[in-house]
Design brief:
With 259 residues, the chain is low in regular secondary structure. 0% of the residues lie in helices and 0% in strands. The model has no long low-confidence stretch (mean pLDDT 87).
């Protein structure tokens, strides 16, 4: 019986070696694994532990599946049924400019670069970004679009909701001293497309723009148009040609006694 601190297998490579400390060449056509680790106890130790004690410049794990079959996968992981810890935990303690996780697509493949899908009734968030301790100039999500010939959308939301009251997009700005814009749109090019393009393609009965100021005392303008340029267009262009006779272009109901 070996001592508790004994290693089952210990490999010590020479200082100047150029070959692998452990090399496994599997040329077989069987379905067996090249390496199989089966943990059947309630051990608190890790299955595989890699620690560097020197200024290593190589990769801790390097997977190259260039010659693998079409169904070969680099990593397949299945979590336990009642796990309470993170399935995959990445702690970035560096101070350089390297990314925590970098995914690069260098081919014209048609699949998704990152795909998130739920086949069960999960109640957590698909993506949760918390920036409480981040620097003031950090962005939650930064996107740069293809400059030429792009026909896809930078952000595409398809909401097939039929019941419930959940919003397609909900923004809550709760900072007491927040003075930044909730939505900031800057047009720095001479494009001709609409800034807001709303197409009603069904018998929609909801309000298109609903502004409710009944909760707090709002002192700012609801709509503010101010330009220092030689503006040569309409502020409001309303066409009621195909509307019914009772439709009004503008309907104002006032309740204040003094104006």
């Amino acid at each position: 019986t070996a001592a508790a601190a004994s290693e089952g297998l210990l490999l010590i490579a020479p200082a100047g070696h150029t070959g692998a400390a452990l090399s496994i060449a599997d040329a077989g056509t069987t379905t067996g694994y090249a390496i199989l680790i089966a943990e059947s106890s309630t051990s608190s130790g890790g299955g595989i532990s890699f620690t560097t004690a020197g200024a290593m410049t190589g990769d801790a794990i390097n997977l190259n599946l260039a010659n693998a079959g079409a169904t070969g996968q680099a990593l397949v992981a299945t979590t336990g049924a009642a796990t309470t810890s993170d399935f995959i935990l990445v702690t970035h303690a560096g101070t350089g400019a390297g990314s925590g996780i970098a995914v690069t697509a260098n081919t014209t493949f048609t699949g998704n670069l990152i795909a998130l899908k739920a086949t069960g009734a999960m109640t957590g968030d698909f993506l949760n970004v918390t920036m409480t301790n981040a620097g003031n100039s950090a962005d939650g999500i930064a996107m740069t679009g293809t400059p030429v010939g792009r026909t896809g959308s930078m952000i595409l939301i398809t909401d097939a909701q039929t019941t419930g009251s959940g919003a397609t997009l909900a923004i809550t700005k709760s900072g007491a001293l927040a003075v930044g814009d909730v939505i900031d749109i800057t047009l720095s090019a001479t494009g001709a497309g609409p800034v807001f393009d709303i197409n009603i393609a069904a018998a929609y009965t909801g309000v298109i723009f609903d502004i409710d100021g009944s909760v707090g005392v709002h002192t700012g303008d609801i709509l503010n148009f101010n330009t220092t340029q030689a503006f040569n267009a309409d502020i409001f262009d309303i066409v009621l040609t195909n509307c019914v006779a009772s439709v009004r272009a503008l309907f104002i109901t006032g309740s204040a006694t003094t104006r």
